[in-house]
Design brief:
By secondary structure, this protein is an alpha/beta fold. The two termini are 22 Å apart. Helix 3 crosses helix 4 and helix 5 packs across helix 6. The chain folds into 3 domains: 163 residues, Adenylosuccinate Synthetase, Chain A, domain 1, CATH 3.40.440; 95 residues, Orthogonal Bundle (Adenylosuccinate Synthetase, subunit A, domain 2), CATH 1.10.300.10; 166 residues, Alpha-Beta Complex (Adenylosuccinate Synthetase, Chain A, domain 3).
């Protein structure tokens, strides 16, 4: 059986915690898209970790952790991440890297930086991890696949050809030093040695695992609103953030994905530029940012302060619909315990008309939030394990959100740890 854990919104919804929690009952965890541009924060018995490439199942000895073909693979980041986990007394995880995964090259990171510099005030707020240049090369068919590292003749020829192409851009567009083919070849030899112990045929491995009745968990990065087709274009990432892409990015038949757990925050946050209808500012935003997450709302990769906002029912319903949600995991509910009342965005006003449908970017830029205020519960809810024991106003908040988004909230997270989870029977599942 295949399950997917994905995000409904802008990313940073708490997918890492939910994946880590669900990995206890999974055999295989697969990263199927994205790269080291996003981070999953996990708190468990070993401590607090920010993972960027490794799947969130690496803390369980019984799991195999897979880097799928759809991932933008930064090999040094992966290698260093493995080492950093082991250095903190985590047993060496079982890792399998797809021989069809493509490699983030050093020049991808440089091109990302140079393009943001060139764009200046019109930049996209990139994490400068090389993701957009990587995927551009992949679809232009000039990327390096992991399997190519082990074919020296092919590698030498390709390095020469790629350097000629990239040096034209470096010299004439960015006015930067060129790439020496010998240096790039040496770098790739180092990458080959790092990744060699982990490389295999992931699609064949997963096919056999499913025939043996094993449970596979697909771990998504970012959220629906960052999808290049269905998100807030062009302020999106460069690979599909939807559960459906899990079949492609892992090498699975699409019909094998039976459960899709979509993660929603109890409030909203976003990193980078772009429309954010329910956004709040000033002291109001700063207090929520400081109290939020598991140590403040700051990017796990960049450390940048996240933009803050109230829960957005319009965006979340859209995000859940595009994911094909079977269950919603509702996270960081405990953070809101300080508020006397809690605004919720229930609609968008665009050109004098109120809509509950998520619009295209040009209309989204004009949207103003329609807010409804709910009473807060004004207390700490950490440590509660039964839904019925939550304060009445807290339950009302969850149920109000569920009704507005139209998807069953079956998990409620009330703290950063694995054990801080409440399972709930939703009327929408009956």
């Amino acid at each position: 059986m295949v399950k997917a854990v994905v995000g409904a919104n802008w990313g940073d919804e708490g997918k890492g915690k939910i994946t880590d929690m669900m990995a206890e009952k999974a055999d295989i965890i697969v990263r199927f898209q994205g790269g080291a541009n996003a981070g999953h924060t996990i708190v468990n018995n070993y401590g607090k970790f920010a993972l960027h490439t490794l799947p969130s199942g690496v803390f369980y000895g019984h799991t195999t952790n897979v880097i799928g073909n759809g991932v933008a693979l930064n090999i040094p980041v992966l290698f260093n991440e493995i080492q950093s986990v082991v250095d903190r007394d985590v047993p060496m995880p079982r890792i399998l890297v797809s021989d069809r995964a493509q490699i983030v090259m050093p020049y991808h990171i440089l091109f990302d930086q140079y393009e943001e510099e060139r764009l200046g005030g019109k930049s996209f707020g990139s994490t400068k991890s090389g993701i957009a240049p990587f995927y551009s090369d992949k679809f232009a068919k000039i990327g390096f696949q992991v399997s190519e590292l082990f074919d020296e003749e092919l590698l030498q020829e390709k390095v020469q050809r790629i350097c000629e192409l990239k040096n034209v851009l470096l010299e004439h567009l960015y006015h930067k030093p060129g790439i020496a083919p010998a240096d790039l070849l040496e770098t790739l030899h180092g990458y080959r040695d790092m990744v060699a112990p982990y490389v295999g045929d992931v699609a064949a491995f997963l096919d056999q695992a499913l025939k043996e009745g094993k449970t596979v968990l697909l771990e998504g990065q970012l959220g629906t609103l960052k999808d290049p087709d269905h998100g807030i274009y062009p302020m999106v990432t460069s690979s599909s953030t939807l559960a459906a892409y899990g079949a492609i990015g892992a090498g699975l038949p699409p019909y094998e994905i039976r459960e899709i757990i979509t993660v929603c925050k109890a409030y909203s946050s976003a990193v980078g530029a772009g429309a954010f209808v329910s956004e709040i500012f000033g002291e109001e935003a700063n207090e929520l940012r400081t109290r939020g997450g598991d140590g403040g709302e700051f990017g796990a990769t960049t450390g940048r302060p996240r933009r803050m906002g109230w829960f957005d029912c319009v965006a979340s319903r859209y995000g859940c619909r595009l994911q094909g949600t079977t269950d919603v995991a509702f996270t960081v509910l405990d953070v809101l315990g300080y508020l006397e009342e809690i605004p919720v965005c229930v609609g968008y006003e665009i050109d004098g008309q109120v809509t509950t449908d998520f619009p295209v970017t040009a209309k989204l830029e004009k949207a103003k939030p329609v807010l409804e205020k709910l009473p807060g519960w004004n207390c700490d809810i950490r440590g509660i394990r039964k839904y019925e024991e939550l304060p009445e106003n807290c339950r009302r908040y969850v149920e109000f959100i569920e009704e507005r988004i139209g998807y069953p909230i079956t998990m409620v997270s009330n703290g950063p740890g694995r054990e801080d989870i409440i399972y709930r029977e939703s009327p929408l599942k009956k």
